[in-house]
């Protein structure tokens, strides 16, 4: 079975390619921004997007969305993380929340083949700290996973891949098992 992985995130593409190759799953990549709906839940968005993409492409679909959820701010920015990164960025976010906040980074991975829907989630607890001099995507230089003294940008590549690949490994295993 050939599956379409749809994303505009090169890092997720890299991880999915590695995991699918390891597990013998055929994958095609379509670069596209996923339209987000105004709901509070990443999972609700994934369900809606999967159905739309399946109707459009008529092939099994695999997608993933991530969000940053700040404790005490009604989980802001949540599904609107991309919007915040393109508008106020981290400087604006720190002006709103201060220099240290407890957060979770959530990723939801979804699969739909017309008959079955599979969902896997990754929830990383940690803190946002305005003390990094590293570079990286939006919050990576400032996100310190729980029990880790390094930001995501400071972590070695293998450690990052191990974390981010977890939901993809789980869902691809479930896809193959049928």
Give an overview of the whole structure:
The protein is of the alpha/beta class. The chain has a single domain (2-171), classed as Alpha-Beta Complex (Maf protein). 37% of the residues lie in helices and 30% in strands. It is built from five helices and seven strands; from the N terminus they run βαβαββααβββα. Strands 1, 2, 3, 4, 5, 6 and 7 form a seven-stranded mixed sheet that branches. Helix 1 crosses helix 5. The model has no long low-confidence stretch (mean pLDDT 90).
* SSE pattern, N- to C-terminal: EHEHEEHHEEEH
Query: Using DSSP, what is the number of strands?
Result: 7
Counting structural domains, the number is 1
What top-tier CATH class fits best? Answer: Alpha Beta
List keywords for this structure.
Maf protein, 178 residues, alpha/beta, globular, 7 strands
